[in-house]
Design goal:
4 copies of one chain form a homotetramer. Chain A has 403 residues and is of the alpha+beta class. The first copy, chain A, contains 13 helices and 9 strands. The interface between A and D is large, with 51 and 51 residues.
């Protein structure tokens, strides 16, 4: 770890101890008490504090707009933030999907687009969403995307139905990056484009908020949105027609590092609370920690988490050194490995907590639901495994035998 | 299957096709629309229809009060009801925890207790709860139970905190069977007693409703209840002081068959919808059903479910022929095997459904949360595995070698 | 269990206690001491004793030639024999591949073929092999079979290379049933035929004996055999040209029950010796049996074995009642489930035995190698899972939804 | 990787391509053809070639006697050698148990001991063994060790029975390091000592050679040895009475890195041959590589191996930087993770190879047996998991909560 990253890690750790963990219960109460779909005062306060503490926009590798950290430097910070996954990433202005959207705007946005959308996002004044997944098709295959982005004069008309659009529940969400087809007849990976659609554009309708395993994740939320011929200026198109797939690929790499490291942080915390719980809870005359199967669960969790972290850090390093494309296999691997490890570790903690584990008195059930969902987000495990196998098989078709 | 059981199975199947499945969405809407904690008119209508159809109280082996079916006859009916686990068991007056409580009253209740509580329960007029688990201790070890049932003159005074008391959210829940200690100084399994505590007894307070993986399961629900010196007549004690553990053991056997068969039914339905989904959903140019890993998932699910069902039916048969005590090992085994199988099968279905799978548009996420919870209810897997191993080891300590 | 089967089970159990187990070590010594590829005097003695005890040819459902037991009656006997898998099945004249070959001869053999081959097989005077698998192709796909059976006048000429031909190492092996193609241009499942080829036919050459995980399984063994234009009378063809696939299917059903039940018996014995070992072996001041993970291993083994046995018995019952074809899915399932369960159970026992477990001082390592091999014999798991999924998917393509 | 290590890796790779792989079959033939328990001329030739190529004693961190590489530098070289695990490590004079024994002599040997034993070992002229495990006790608990090392005048008398003493089958094995108790009444970890016992000492008897899963691993082998009052000069005691446990601990760290990296190399090769096999083998009209489950197997193997390697390299780095003691948890983790990963990867390859996979035509079955055995050698998984859990639990007993 560079000394800069180590220093930031110390400061984030201290900030979380001082401000995040002590406010988690109050956040839940604030959401439960008022209109679930309004931003909380608690997070707004935390944002101001984090910004004042210089812990702001750390995710952005671009040093003009953000911290300028490498993936390898930022990843451990992401792990720390993930320990309080509901509140901390937003407090540090490092939460999905805004991070990915800001990166897209830094890389592909015009100066005007940056002024209008990137700057308020960087300032934490507005939020954004990324509208790709559709209910009617298997969206893991991007060529299935049915939404249309059609040129009409100086505008594009956007038509389609999207769902599980995370973050769209928040009234501060002002801008959507929408993936759709500009040319369904083009070559497979040149059919799609991405376009900026302000949420207040006529024809953009939030149909409903969806829940995951019973959680609505308010005020962030996951929306079903209909784009009913929503018209935006032609200049809102990002990078050019047919470049949507390319943008999606570039966006995904760092996002996967972030998702995985946050999940590892969350699972580390689950393991910690499990260790403490079993040390004090007594059954059949001795602490649960004295049971061999509990100890085996702890050991398996430690092994899975350490391996998942090393693999994710390795992928981050590769992205920094050889680029996202060359690190494709590693990025696919962490997307399978880390959520799976997190899910198992959290599940073991739930089991150790008994009934409390499935309730909302501890963070575990919600954390599990989140980890489970990540096994589907950005492509299900099956798609990534297929990609890994393809690369692996390709290595050996022309080489020597050694049997 | 006996012809009587086969006939009942046909009629339940027909009833579910005609009345249950078509009303599931309406039930969800009714709960969502009004006061979540009121009984629904839909279920009340279904109850009347089921009763009229002669599909009522089928769970009760006692032929004076119920259907008089054996465990082996009832188990497959339970599987069918479990397919719509939120609504169907109650519609047939076969839902937990009422079934277990009614059995306790049939076996151990006085004529007066039967008149007051059993009859309205059998009529589906009131509901009941079973208050055993406590937040402060590992309740899988019954000797940890801290609630007290203290004799004071002609009354017992009940003091303690219980949680995850399922069914207590429903205003029709009028009676609790409470487990507590009458004599903490007695021999390990003679300390506990069970007592009938009407829910309107002064000192009985529902503190809050708990959720499991984000689901509140309204209007049934899972309550935290404080018994703050609640006083009931001494005649409310069941069977006698120090007999609580014994009643709990007798109560658990059939209940585990029911839980397991309902879960198997639920998982069967998950596998069915998975099969249909993958047959029509297309990715990368072919139905998901053409992917080898999807097929492997389906095959594994079929193998797990058939094995879990055969084992549960085997346990039911043993209970009918050699009794609950001799079938103890088998009852412990199904408690581990069936929820685990159901959880895995449902999880594979969720994966095949993608984002829809974690949402509430299909029944899978909620079904999974239920199956996961059953891995803790009535004792965590760990306790049952320990019991199985104990029996297994005992078989071999005095026998021949064959190495 | 019928009383006849129960009586046979008792007698087999007694026979194994009296004659089989006490002679296992001596058998190993006899094989090690002399020419590994000669029959042992010990097994010959056991055969005479078993025959005298009326425990002979129990496998054969045909009551003219054999015991006339149903699959359901025979299966538990098979489990008992499997406990000493190297020696016991042969002692009772119930060992593969002879059992399958005898069944083929009973069903499809001409009177002359029965006289020549079936009778000495039933008498335990000769042995036989079944030559299907080929080294050059994936033989799980029967259409890959490359061996040719070509009509030339009154003869057929057999040409091809087969391997893992079990039992061919024994000099008493006199007859092979060979699978090959008579008409490579016919419809997929009508290309193959089966033919009787005496092992002393010119052109039949045993190239070498193969080992599995280091075991040569002498004197039974697994041979690589070349059929170099071996010529046999045209009357040696079984059932008719193009009927090979059909015979193979009919032969496989009971054979899979046998394999699975024998493996379950073997794994039961592994669990028994594990239980005894951990009860007496001490580490860190207490018997291994006091370690929670060891207990969990025992419990998991018990659950897996009971489920595998119930499923196998269920498949046997189905074969008896609805026939091999209708029981196809169940037969595929046991082929995956039982070897996998046996393998896991034996592996846990190995782990509990430490270094002794991988040695030949206990039967575990060899038993494991056998169980592992059965996961490939008669088709790898993958083929069976695909078949199960196909049946499962077919059930749901035209039926109602229930989502 | 340092440039020195990278250069050595290139040269080892080239050496293996040129000399090792092409001679594997010939080695097997030479062992099979002659006296199994004699060194092969092939390996002797390879040793001379490797030494001439400067690829000799690379394991030794001590730069006076060996290559002076760090654990992190040597680990990847070890992975390469492990690809041909039977022959390559010895060819480079880097094979167990000699490497561990040489390290012990470098660290704790007197000048005279080094001259007599270390120098010929470094020259590859003799071999050695390490006699710790005993048949009568669970040797994973060092306090169980029953062998005695008793002072009598100027000698020590060594009495005990040891087994699975690897390398003792080779007639060049001249020296044993024996672990036994000098003072059974001392504190738990001060009872044991280690002593040098020449194999030709009167009273040292090789009772028999043991096999693992049917493999005798000749000419290296695994011996059962009786020390029947073998007398050696008192100066043969290493480091001092009661220091045996301490030496064992120091010896184990690097040895575990070596074992794990060799297994990873072996499994990498298994994955390679699997990829090639499935690319060419056809079933049901397409290469096995087109089957989704095969691809999933490949992807899982890649993920497991990359994680196991990263964890092992991490442990090696920690040993280099903070020392064996501080890296204890990581060393325990790799001992569980790497053999398990290797075992799974090799098992998948076996499955893909079908019958060939369990035979000796490919290296897989023997490689699997080796990986399985390593899950027991140097302590079974259970012991390591317990150690990991202990460290993990200790971290959290005094720290803050974050629930």
């Amino acid at each position: 770890m560079t000394s800069r990253a180590a220093d930031l890690a110390d400061r984030i750790r201290a900030f979380m101890d001082a401000h995040i963990y002590p406010n988690e219960a109050a956040f839940d109460r604030e959401v439960a008490a008022g209109d679930r779909w309004q931003p909380t005062s608690i997070v707004e306060t935390l944002k101001a504090q984090a910004r004042a503490a210089g812990l702001w926009n750390l995710f952005l590798p671009d040093s003009e707009y953000g911290a300028g950290l490498t993936n390898e430097e930022y990843a451990p910070l992401c792990e720390l933030m993930g320990r309080s996954h509901v509140m901390a990433p937003e407090a540090f202005n490092c939460s999905a999907p805004d991070t990915g959207n800001m990166e897209v705007l830094v890389r592909y946005g015009t100066p005007a687009q940056r002024r209008q959308w990137l700057e308020p996002l960087l300032a934490g004044e507005i939020r954004s969403c990324f509208a790709m997944t559709e209910p009617a098709v298997a969206s893991s295959d991007a060529t299935n995307i049915a939404a249309r982005i059609e040129r009409e004069g100086d505008s594009y008309k956007v038509t389609g139905r999207k769902w599980f659009i995370s973050g769209a529940g928040d009234p501060r969400c002002r801008i959507a990056i929408v993936m759709g087809k500009t040319d369904p007849g083009a070559e497979r990976h040149r059919q799609q484009s991405m376009i900026l659609v302000p949420m207040d554009t006529p024809g953009v309708k939030i149909i409903r908020m969806l829940s995951v395993f019973g959680y609505d994740d308010a005020p962030h939320g996951h929306a079903e949105i209909v784009f009913d011929g929503a018209r935006v200026p032609a200049t809102n198109l990002l990078l050019g027609e047919g470049r949507g797939f390319e943008i999606a690929q570039g966006r995904l790499g760092p996002g996967r590092i972030h998702h995985c490291m946050r999940l590892i942080g969350l699972a580390e915390r689950a393991l910690e609370v499990m260790c403490r719980r079993v040390s004090t809870r007594v059954a059949f005359g001795r602490p649960l920690a004295d049971q061999g199967t509990i100890r085996a669960d702890i050991a398996e969790s430690r092994m899975e988490l350490d391996q998942a972290r090393l693999l994710t850090m390795h992928a981050a390093r590769l992205m920094d050194t050889v680029g996202n494309k060359a690190a494709r296999k590693e990025i696919a691997m962490i997307k399978v490995v880390a959520p799976r490890a997190a899910q198992r570790v959290i599940d073991r903690a739930i089991q150790a907590f008994g009934a409390a584990g499935v309730s909302d008195d501890v963070f575990l059930a919600r954390a599990w639901a989140h980890a489970r969902t990540i096994r589907l987000a950005d492509g299900p495990d099956e798609v990534h495994r297929a990609a890994i196998a393809k690369t692996e098989l390709a290595k050996h078709t022309s080489s020597r035998a050694n049997v």
